[in-house]
């Protein structure tokens, strides 16, 4: 299959495998960073968590990016202690941030260790001067969730820029996520979708079901062949 239709998508790109997808998205991030820095002197990007983006981040650290003019945020975080192996900022640090020359003040982690309500309020204040974000990177779970916005969660309907989540269907249940309004306000949104486990959710979205990921409008979707429904 060389093309795939997703309602609400700006574009859908199909890659042979995870490695090809990761390189293509890394190159796209570097391109968007260059454009934003040239246009307004700074690039505001929100990183995705989970395992799918890890390879992309490993490739991105070798590309020419002026990291002194990049401000890094996160799409969501699990309410776990600082340094916990399951935190998204830990993965991003290991794969990318510890390997690049970025000033520590340019890294804006979510203080999820304070609990969802407090962390959401504090992060909303941090984001206020960065809106709209230049780029939000997103993944999708097998249930169609994105960031920490899950099907049927009250957080989906919130207009808050950052939302507290208490009902994640897998542990930890307490999380912090950028709200759907913040995601949609970003100048560019990029999904990284890999693996056969995502086929079911993609099929539902293609047929018009409004799973959380489908609420993100005008996004670039990057899929590997394994994720494509038969």
Describe the structure.
By secondary structure, the protein is of the alpha/beta class. It has a domain at 38-171 and 189-194: 3-Layer(aba) Sandwich (Rossmann fold). The chain contains 6 helices and 9 strands; from the N terminus they run βαβαββααβββαβαβ. The chain has helices at 18-40, 54-60, 88-95, 116-127, 180-185, 199-206, and strands spanning 9-15, 43-47, 70-74, 76-78, 135-138, 162-165, 175-178, 188-193, 219-224. β2 (43-47), α2 (54-60) and β3 form a beta-alpha-beta unit. The radius of gyration is 16 Å and the shape is globular.
CATH topology of the domain at 38-171 and 189-194: Rossmann fold
Straight-line N-to-C gap? 9 Å
Low-confidence stretches: none
How many beta-strand runs? 9
Sketch the major β-sheet. 6 strands, parallel
Please state roughly what percent of the residues sit in beta strands, choosing from under 5%, 5-15%, 15-25%, 25-35%, 35-45% or over 45%: 15-25%
Shape: globular
Average per-residue pLDDT, rounded, comes to 96
CATH architecture of the domain at 38-171 and 189-194: 3-Layer(aba) Sandwich
Radius of gyration: 16 Å
- Counted by DSSP, the helix tally is 6
Classified by CATH, the class of the domain at 38-171 and 189-194 is Alpha Beta
Order of strands, widest sheet = 1-9-8-5-2-3
Q: Which structural class do you get from the secondary structure elements? A: alpha/beta
What share of residues is helical?
A: 25-40%
Q: SSE string, helix = H, strand = E?
A: EHEHEEHHEEEHEHE
Strands, helices and their partners?
Layout: E1 9-15, H1 18-40, E2 43-47, H2 54-60, E3 70-74, E4 76-78, H3 88-95, H4 116-127, E5 135-138, E6 162-165, E7 175-178, H5 180-185, E8 188-193, H6 199-206, E9 219-224
Parallel strand pairs: 1-9, 2-3, 2-5, 5-8, 8-9
Antiparallel strand pairs: 4-7, 6-7
Helix pairs in contact: 1-2
């Amino acid at each position: 299959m060389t093309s795939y239709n997703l309602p609400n998508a700006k574009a859908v790109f199909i890659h042979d495998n995870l490695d090809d997808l990761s390189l293509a998205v890394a190159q796209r991030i570097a391109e968007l960073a260059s454009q934003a820095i040239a246009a307004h002197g700074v690039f505001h990007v929100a990183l995705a968590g989970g395992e799918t983006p890890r390879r992309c981040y490993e490739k991105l650290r070798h590309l020419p990016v002026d990291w002194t003019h990049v401000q890094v945020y996160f799409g969501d975080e699990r309410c776990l202690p600082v340094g916990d192996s399951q935190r998204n900022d830990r993965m991003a640090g290991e794969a990318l941030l510890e390997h690049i020359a970025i000033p520590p003040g340019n890294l804006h982690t979510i203080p999820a260790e304070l609990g969802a309500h407090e962390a959401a309020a504090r992060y909303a204040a941090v984001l206020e001067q960065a809106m709209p974000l230049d780029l939000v990177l997103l993944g999708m779970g097998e249930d169609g969730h994105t960031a920490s916005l899950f099907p049927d969660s009250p957080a989906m309907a919130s207009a808050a820029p950052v939302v507290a989540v208490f009902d994640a269907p897998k542990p930890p249940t307490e999380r912090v996520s950028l709200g759907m309004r913040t995601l949609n306000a970003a100048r560019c949104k990029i999904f990284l979708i890999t693996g056969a486990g995502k086929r079911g959710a993609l099929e539902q979205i293609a047929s018009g079901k409004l799973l959380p990921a489908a609420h993100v409008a005008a996004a670039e979707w990057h899929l590997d062949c394994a994720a494509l429904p038969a």
